[in-house]
Amino acid sequence: MHIETGRYLYGGALQVLFLLEGLRRRGIDNVLVCTRDSDIARQAHPFAHVRAMPMYGEMDLLFPLRLSAAIRETQPDLVHVHSRRGADIWGGVCARFQGIPGLLTRRVDNREWHPIARLKYGSYDGIVSISQGIRQVLLGEGIAPDRVRCVHSAVDVEKYRIQRDREWFRGEFGVPCTAPVIGVIAQLIPRKGHRYLLDITPRLVSRFPDLRILFFGKGPLQNELQDSITRRGLGERVQLAGFRNDMPRILPCLDLVVHPALMEGLGVSLLQAAACGVPLVAARAGGIPEIVRQGENGYLVEPGNSRELEQAISSLLADPDLAHSFGSQGRLIVQREFSIDSMVDGNLSVYDNMMQRRRR
């Protein structure tokens, strides 16, 4: 049984769909407990028996009753919780209460108060972290090393093939033919660090006069970022492009993807960009260094260090041959280390180990 609370099919929910499909191909029967009217509820039917139910977050005190009923009726061999929003608290408790092993996937690298962390994770037989960075956070919170296994998130490499349609791209976003384009793909929230790129944009424009920057994503900072863009006189240089469903078409047309996040569990958008052969500049935060290899497929900078960010971006915009080399190497890294099959096999190995321990 898999529990996923996300409403939209990106981030963790997309990883769950990849996992369901891969497990089904390997002969595993899946039950998916998810939110009513969610994207994954509509798309998971070929790979799982879908049980959609209301989910209202941590304060939904009826959720454990609904979840317990689903576990009791289904009697799965294992319960795998993929989300937060209350599922991470109640999923393990409900599974343990009915004598079924529970597994939690942790996708974020924010630290928790140690007593709360030990209480929450104590109900699970095992924990999967999507990066070594997250695993280190969990170990620092007192979780025993033998209870945490790293299984990287995956990207559909075939979906993100290098197919550049620059004429469409430049018409879609009003970008001049000679303009280098930087993309930032992240929620518009403080920890993603958009402000650090805006701080250095005037200096970048002075060196690269045709430069354009596209912010992809939505979030509570949208109005604040737009005000900052307008106040700095960058309206013709920086565009809030919103959430897009056609990123596989957009990404290959970018010259550089920048991710100046202060915190990041792994950074699936970086995987997608690398799969498209785009060079990367990102902060050395969370699991990002597991994707961005310094001097190999991109550059890493200290979180919040605008000077380092400017130098890294400038060096790649000024050297197209180096940028191309980084992009080519990045695609090879994704193919080798972040495939869907690797992610599915990693999770299946965790399942097998848990079941063996339970039998012993």
TrEMBL record:
<protein>
    <submittedName>
        <fullName>Glycosyl transferase, group 1</fullName>
    </submittedName>
</protein>
<dbReference type="Pfam" id="PF13439">
    <property type="entry name" value="Glyco_transf_4"/>
</dbReference>
<dbReference type="InterPro" id="IPR028098">
    <property type="entry name" value="Glyco_trans_4-like_N"/>
</dbReference>
<keyword id="KW-0808">Transferase</keyword>
<dbReference type="Pfam" id="PF00534">
    <property type="entry name" value="Glycos_transf_1"/>
</dbReference>
<dbReference type="InterPro" id="IPR001296">
    <property type="entry name" value="Glyco_trans_1"/>
</dbReference>
<feature type="domain" description="Glycosyltransferase subfamily 4-like N-terminal">
    <location>
        <begin position="11"/>
        <end position="159"/>
    </location>
</feature>
<feature type="domain" description="Glycosyl transferase family 1">
    <location>
        <begin position="169"/>
        <end position="331"/>
    </location>
</feature>
<dbReference type="GO" id="GO:0016757">
    <property type="term" value="F:glycosyltransferase activity"/>
</dbReference>
